[in-house]
Design a protein that fits this description.
Layout: H1 3-6, E1 9-15, H2 33-40, E2 43-45, E3 48-49, H3 54-63, H4 67-70, H5 102-108, E4 112-118, E5 136-140, H6 160-163, E6 169-171, E7 174-176, H7 191-204, E8 212-217, H8 229-232, H9 243-257, H10 282-315, E9 322-328, H11 344-354, H12 372-380, H13 392-395, E10 399-402, H14 404-407, E11 413-415, E12 419-420, H15 424-432, H16 457-463, H17 470-478, E13 491-495, E14 498-503, E15 506-510, E16 522-525, H18 541-558, H19 585-592
Parallel strand pairs: 1-8, 1-9, 2-11, 3-12, 4-5, 4-8
Antiparallel strand pairs: 2-10, 5-6, 6-7, 9-10, 13-14, 14-15, 15-16
Length: 601
């Protein structure tokens, strides 16, 4: 057997905006039999963390380091909010060349590298997947798009919000003129179906003398919520009692499964009063429940497609030698776009003009809906808030690992150790025997930063060791510091001026007043208060001081832009998008498609 044949394959599956309890094995009523089976013979992690939003997580995942180093200290879509603030290295808005990307390193170590799905790490040709180490790639470049590939005429009164999310796809770096699917044709385009089928095709055509790294980042269940009615209608009536009833059911199931403590105090729901279920009209409740039914259908469909890929691996005899991860990229999406002062009226006018959001049409190619903060917090409970926040609801996600050499004797185990998305790359490189390029040596003609994540190889070796007492093994499974020990650096988060830092079970959080915060650092003991309900800053000033010193160290080491609290409204400075580090992401979008939108180039 050759050395390559002994190396494991890697399959990395990422869901988009999936909440902590949105799949069956994490307490959901949504039917996900394939993921449930994967967890049954693998392990689930309850304290796995990402960034608070899509592209920062993807940057951390594919670099093994902090998003402020890898180029997504600020998402490209948000830089216009304060151009001067984010005119800094590490805030380019794309995966920069200061880091060695995971597929680049694996490619240099004789792996065949594949991507089928959402990219969101750069729009210009120099930053597409084919330039960052993927041998073959079919990629959705922006952060989201219509799942059927349909777009109305963008030049007729369209606003920037929609101009940023066109169905912009590339096949090995070349623009694809995707044919929209307006008839629910099973052979036509639907995002999750196509990504899975395309990956299976890539795998079937791969060189058989190389191990593979396959990246399957779905764009589901990100809005717009769209799926075939046969999936949506499986959940008809399931959500008629509203989001609070669902939240209580999910909490009860999480406790039953042992995924949260039985005495946990969940954080209160944070949402506009007018969105209270009892205050909505009957029609509004029907429309809201239908949006949630559509969301559930999207997750159901995604699971079905994951099953197709797993079955293919079993059919070709590669499943047992494949290291498989399933995770979400951040917490559930809870933003109510119609309520944003600077955009609400405009966005609703455009939706009314171009889309049909009538009850029966929700989920179709020409509908455009999201489900809002109350449904999102049914999925993130017991945690606080949701996507875009550095509270637990925004950064704590479901995680499944299945790798028979590690998990065949641990089937169904729940691991409570703290871990982060930055750990994935060092773990995979360790298993592949592929050293990360040293900071002191050139990699592909450039110097690159070190990884901040930590390999799990030693941890799982210990966990599977025959030696050791029952108590020692229990500590490895339930101990918060079993992977990241007290000797390891603290872990920090920052996005849009919302920040956090964690060391062991202690966590500090900072949020502006306009963003559900106090504009002061809060302190939480997550071992007793995972819902972040009891601010201990006044009682534990020395602990706050200790963690703030670690925060200043984190800011300095990672180039975080930190200072005055972020303004609640855009800041108009004497600088233009094209002049800041990273340039203008909207122009990058227009540049691919000169016949669309306002920017004719």
């Amino acid at each position: 057997m050759s050395d390559n044949a002994k190396k494991p394959n890697f399959l990395l599956i990422v869901a988009d905006d999936l909440g902590f309890s949105d799949i069956g094995c994490f307490g959901s009523e949504i039917q996900t039999p394939n993921l449930d089976k994967l967890a049954q013979s693998g392990i689930r992690m309850t304290d796995f963390h990402t960034a608070a939003a899509c592209s920062p997580t993807r940057a951390m995942l594919l670099s093994g380091t902090d998003n402020h180093i890898a180029g997504i200290g600020c998402m490209s879509e948000q830089k216009e909010h304060d151009l001067k603030r984010w005119d800094a290295p590490g805030h380019e808005g794309f995966l920069n060349y200061r880091v060695a990307a995971l597929p680049e390193v694996l490619q240099d170590n004789n792996y065949h590298t594949l991507l089928s799905g959402k990219w969101h790490l750069g729009l210009k040709p120099d930053f597409t997947p084919d330039k960052r180490g993927f041998d073959r790639s079919f990629a959705l470049l922006p952060g989201c798009s219509n799942h059927y590939g349909w777009e109305p005429q963008l030049q007729d009164g369209m606003i920037k919000f929609f101009e940023r999310i066109p169905p912009l796809y590339t096949d090995n770096g070349k623009l694809v003129d995707l044919k929209s699917n307006t008839t629910n044709d099973p052979k036509g385009f639907y995002s999750s179906d196509f990504y899975a089928d395309n990956l299976i095709n890539y795998l079937s055509e791969r060189p058989k003398d190389k191990p593979f790294f396959a990246f399957l980042p779905f764009s589901a269940p990100h809005w717009p919520l769209q799926v075939d009615k046969k999936y949506r209608d499986k959940y008809k009536g399931k959500y008629d009692e509203g989001p609070e009833v669902l939240r209580q059911k999910r909490l009860a199931k999480l406790k039953e499964l042992g995924l949260i403590p039985p005495d946990v105090v969940p954080h209160d729901v944070v949402a506009p009063e007018q969105s209270e279920w009892e205050q909505m009209t009957e029609e509004e409740r029907q429309l809201s429940a239908r949006a949630m039914e559509t969301f559930a259908g999207m997750v159901d469909n995604m699971d079905e497609n994951i099953g197709k890929v797993l079955d293919y691996l079993k059919g070709i005899g590669e499943f047992e030698n494949t290291f498989i991860i399933f995770q979400s990229d951040n917490g559930a999406e809870g933003l109510a776009y119609e309520a944003i002062p600077v955009m609400g009226k405009n966005i609703m006018n455009v939706i009314d003009k171009f889309y049909d959001n009538s009850l029966d049409n929700i989920g179709e190619y020409n509908s455009f809906v999201w489900y809002g903060p109350r449904w999102a917090q049914a999925a993130t409970a017991p945690s606080r808030l949701y996507k875009m926040f550095s509270t637990e609801g925004g950064i704590r996600v479901p995680f499944i690992l299945n790798y028979p050499p590690w998990t065949q004797n641990l089937g169904g185990k729940i691991i409570d150790a703290f871990a982060t998305v930055m750990d994935i790359m060092p773990t995979m490189l360790d298993l592949a025997g592929a050293p990360h390029p040293s900071k002191n040596h050139l990699f592909r003609g450039r110097h690159v930063e070190d990884m901040r994540g930590k390999s799990w190889v030693n941890y799982f070796t210990k966990l599977n060791s025959v030696s050791g007492s029952k108590e020692e093994k229990s500590a490895l499974i339930t101990g918060v510091d079993a992977i990241h020990t007290s000797d390891d650096p603290a872990t920090g988060w920052e996005l849009f001026g919302r920040a956090a830092l964690r060391k062991g079970h202690w966590k500090i959080v900072f949020m502006p007043r306009w963003s559900h915060g106090t504009e002061e650092w809060e302190l939480f003991d997550l071992s007793k208060d995972p819902g972040e309900t009891n601010n201990l800053a006044a009682q534990e000033p020395e602990k706050v001081k200790e963690l703030l010193e670690l925060w200043e160290e984190y800011v300095k080491q990672n180039g975080v832009v930190w200072g005055a609290p972020l303004s609640s409204v855009p800041v108009n400075g004497d600088i233009e998008c094209k002049d800041v580090i990273g340039g203008d992401a909207l122009d990058d979008t227009r540049g691919w498609m000169p016949h669309r939108g306002k920017g004719r180039v």
